[in-house]
Amino acid sequence: MNELKEASQRQMSFVATVKAVMWSFFGVRKNSAYEEDTQKLNPVHVIIAGIIAAVLFVLTLLMVVKMVVAK
Q1: How far apart are CA 25 and CA 50, in angstroms?
Q2: Total domains in the fold of the chain
Q3: Which domain covers residue 24, as residue numbers?
Q4: What is the model's pLDDT at position 58?
Q5: What is the DSSP string of the chain?
Q6: At residue 4, does pLDDT exceed 70?
Q7: Which distant-in-sequence residues (6+ apart) come within 8 Å of 49 by Cβ?
Q8: Do the Cβ atoms of 43 and 26 come closer than 8 Å?
């Protein structure tokens, strides 16, 4: 339980977290950068950024499908 408290108090910025999540969605990441991120990222920020990115991805796909079907 103490480890979870320590992890949630990490001070990496939300913008850096979003950047790391986007790289994860893209699927290209150096192992050294991944290891560095796991030590610095706040897990709460990762969850929030992941949910936001997933919603944006689904909405983008829906828009593309609507545009293609409309033509």
Answers
A1: 9
A2: 1
A3: 2-70
A4: 96
A5: -HHHHHHHT----HHHHHHHHHHHHHT---HHHHHHHHHH--HHHHHHHHHHHHHHHHHHHHHHHHHHHH-
A6: no
A7: 14, 17, 18, 20, 21
A8: no
